[in-house]
Amino acid sequence: MPDRAPAPSKTIAHDRAPAAAPSAHYGYGESLAFDQAEPGFDLRALALILRANAVVIVILFALALAAALVVTMLMTPRYTAITTVEINNQTAQVLGKAADADTSEAQMSTAQETERFLETQLEIINSRAMAQRVAQRLALVGNPAFYKAMGRRMPGNNPSRRVLEEDAVKALLKAEAGTLPHNTRLASIAFTAPDSYFAAKVANIWAAEYIQANLQRRYDSSDYAREFIQGQLTDAKAKLEKSERDLNAYARAAGLIKTRDANPTAGGGSADGTVANSVTGASLLQLNAAANQAEQTRIAAQQRWQALNSGDLFNSPEVLANPAIAQLLAERARNEAELQRERSRHTDAYPTVIQLQAQVDTINHQLSAVARNVRAAVKQQYDAATRSAEELKAQVQGLKGQSLAEQDRAVQYNLLARDADTNRSLYESLLQRYKELTAAAGISASNIAIIDNAENPIEPSSPVLLINLGVGLLAGFALSVLVVTIRHQLDDAVRIPEDIEAKLQIPLLGVIPRTGDDLPSVALDDPKSMLSEAYNSLRSSLLFSTASGLPKTLLVTSSQAAEGKSTTSLAIARGVAKLGRKVLLIDVDMRRPAVHATMGFDNKQGLSSVLTGQRPFAAVIHATPHANLSVMTSGPIPPSPTDLLSSVSMTQLLKELGQAYDVVILDSPPVLGLADAPVLASLVEGVLLVVQADRSRRGSLKSSLRRLQDNHANILGGTLTMFDPKKVSSRYSEYYGYSYYSHYYTEATDQA
């Protein structure tokens, strides 16, 4: 392929989308630009999609509602019975303490722990274990009446007991539902079955078994605690007996005799019992007390003895306190008194005086003897007290040595004694706890109470027509969304003008309606026809398609053949020529040329003749009845049109024609399957893509655009041809304007 020269006077780069011109005639050009500026979800597009599929949506909704009605009529009525129970997390107090062993759980106080407790109880209500208890209580396993009441069939032929039990449990769990509303302690146990009496019976039995299971769990917990404590008690008893035997054996071997007083501090012993509870210690305490007492006695005797020896004997209290001394002193006083009386009357030699004097002397002698005896007695007491104190001291010293030796031997004894005391304390504690658990066994208070028993329901809980219809509506909605989405996603055709921008991402420059039975050329000759109005709008858009206005060289192509590109090329050429510009229309489709037939020219000479050098371009240009419009036909069909169109001659020709004419319009072959259009697109200033409504597919159009863009084509936009507003006006009300113009054109034609 020869090198291609760049298109002259190109004002818009191929990678920059040109601004779409507003279409004042049809009113949707500006709205599209506004829609493009609006981000987010397009509600109008959704409304259009729903309107386009309204019939399908109505049918799907009707089918869903009908299905819901049929299902409701065919469903077996089911009844729901509800039993209400109150669940407390505090257990009643029995014998002053919680009856169960799990007091930590029963004394929960925080809201979080209470909520967790209630949720746990709800899980227990809906547990498999509860279903098994109910099945056993009502003898439902393999019971034909149960399957009849539940509307079920017995599984298999001759099923095993395990299979029947599993099936019964599954049936119960499927029909039962325990609920616990928030911020309440009232749980509802609901059971649903075709038989209302059976439903109420199972709901009540379920609640009763739940309470019984709770009590059984508490009893089992207490029984386990008793068994555990009993085992611990046996072990503690054995340890206590062994420790006491070891203690006695060691005491016997060490020669220790212990009294094991209940109060070791009684009698002056130490608090640890190492002195007062042994024979040696007790003897030491007694001898020490006696020694102290003897020492006190000795001191008192010594003081008495010293008092007697330190002064006059008859001045001593010990002597004066003697009864004999007192009697003798009294008798001497009487004799001395008589002696004085006698001496006052008689002389000393008088017998009476002598006799009385002799008696006084005798009494004095007796007093001296008695005083000496008293002093001797005090001396004896003093000596005896001294000997006794010394002896006791000696014994105390001896016992002290024995006690110290015994204390050395009592270290191990004390260790063994403490071990025995510890075992005894543990044994007594376990024994007390065992007695408490034994006394509380069988006395269990439940924290669950039945508030409302289930009654035989009168009205069935299912089926509910309104609910089923609501489900049907939801199903119809979901199915409609699915079907409409699939249809919309699979709808690859370009049907409406918005599809040009939405599906192809190129500007929409014009919309060309279908002409009906009239030929396009006939409709174009009528300036008031709908086709003429549409092409005038397209011409207006092209005038503002680039920064410099209408491109000097414009290629009109399509994705496939027979999409209206030749008619569009002629219409654009005629429209631009009416503006006073010199226009040349070239038929570059050298495979299936059509311009010569439309304009009524022969095709013996044309573009191919110029490119092969046979004729100059001025010799093959035909004048037309339309002012300022000339036509160059394709000429004879060459063996390789692509080689001619991609030659340097074609580039040079376009440059010369661009200088000779104001606008050069090229009627191109289709893009798909051929290389002609992409080659020519790189040589012109602008490309217009013609898209036929209800025929062109997004995939093929995308491929065409990609091929054009790969050749650096400046795609100005697209135009939708053969658009039937009557076909879409019932679904897309935005295009009522075309219907208006079509109606106006029809009336004008009839009047003419």
Tags for this model:
disordered N terminus; 14 strands; 752 residues; four-stranded antiparallel β-sheet; disordered C terminus; alpha/beta; eight-stranded mixed β-sheet
Describe this protein's structure.
- This protein is elongated.
- 58% of the residues lie in helices and 10% in strands.
- The two termini are 55 Å apart.
- Strand 10 and strand 11 form a beta hairpin.
- With 752 residues, the protein is α/β, with parallel strands linked by helices.
- The N terminus and C terminus are likely disordered.
Head-to-tail CA distance between termini: 55 Å
- CATH architecture call of the domain at 507-751: 3-Layer(aba) Sandwich
Contiguous helical run count: 26
The helix/strand class is alpha/beta
Radius of gyration: 67 Å
- What share of the residues does DSSP label as strand, in percent? 5-15%
Q: Please describe the biggest sheet, giving its number of strands, its sense, and whether it closes into a barrel.
A: 8 strands, mixed
Spans of at least 5 consecutive residues whose pLDDT stays below 50 are 1-39, 92-108, 261-276, 729-737, 743-752
**Oligomer kind:** single chain
What's the CATH H-level homologous superfamily of the domain at 507-751?
A: P-loop containing nucleotide triphosphate hydrolases
Number of strands: 14
Question: What is the CATH third-level topology name of the domain at 507-751?
Answer: Rossmann fold
Estimated helix fraction = 55-70%
CATH top level class name of the domain at 507-751:
Alpha Beta
Shape: elongated
